[in-house]
Amino acid sequence: MRLKDKLVFLTGGSTGIGFHCAAAYAREGAKVVIVALDEAESSAAARKLGDGHIGFACNIAKDAEVKAAIERTLAAYGRIDVIHNNAGVASPSKPLHETSDAEWDLLMDVNLRGVLHTTRHGLDALRTSKGNILNTSSLVGVIGQSLHAAYTATKGALNTLTKSMALDYAPYGVRVNAVCPAGVWTPMLRQWASEQPDPAGINRYLDDIHPLGYCPEGDVIADASVFLVSDEARFVTGHIMHVSGGAEIGYRR
Ligand SMILES: NC(=O)c1ccc[n+]([C@@H]2O[C@H](COP(=O)([O-])OP(=O)(O)OC[C@H]3O[C@@H](n4cnc5c(N)ncnc54)[C@H](O)[C@@H]3O)[C@@H](O)[C@H]2O)c1
Questions:
Q1: CATH number of the domain located at residue range(s) 7-186+217-242 in this protein
Q2: I need a surface site. Which of 22, 87, 137, 153 has the fewest CB within 10 A?
Q3: Can you give the pTM of this predicted structure?
């Protein structure tokens, strides 16, 4: 029970990687507040975790909605120990010059502005609990990716932001880290796969990019996340942890 009596505020916890993290946090003794785009999906996800967890809709791109969500969490539980910024969008799969302003704005608003909002409204609670922040970033924010320019820009920025936040909040005893998946089978990855020139060959490709030999499910990210948000990582901050099956190492064809 590495997260006994902890309260985790988790964005994008209704599905995919986020739901795997929610389940792992609950197993380790935490209470989890799941916020995501869809109300019914969020509350259903929280119910699956058992008693004492809640889920509701909150668009993290909207400052007022995040403020209300943090206030609701504090009214219900009186504390926040972890903010896990996991919600994200990944479309479109395009080079930069083909990316529309609307597509660019949505990526920035969700993947980056959302972190601004949760930090703005949640930091005081984390200072009180000596808590921590975990950002779900992406390996492509480190190594780049073809046909995914705007998305990779948000994740590259999130990696630097993680380090800057870690420096700014270290004096308060608040740690800030990021976890970087390569590929993980989720609704988001299925959408991305369907946008590729050869959707049929994509399963093989996604297995091959990971030297460990397969494209995983979200459990591998959840296990690393439990470590990073727990006291076992009490001296780890500003760390960008690759959980990528080795996708970034060695010379590749
Ligand atoms: N799946 C992968 O291969 C992969 C790889 C690297 C990084 N990631 C990152 O992992 C995170 C989770 O991705 P996933 O694959 O599980 O995606 P997913 O599409 O399965 O889930 C995304 C979640 O984010 C929520 N969300 C989206 N926009 C939101 C908004 N404006 N406000 C609140 N919630 C919102 C959705 O409701 C959902 O709960 C993302 O940040 C993504 O960039 C995923």
A1: 3.40.50.720
A2: 153
A3: 0.98
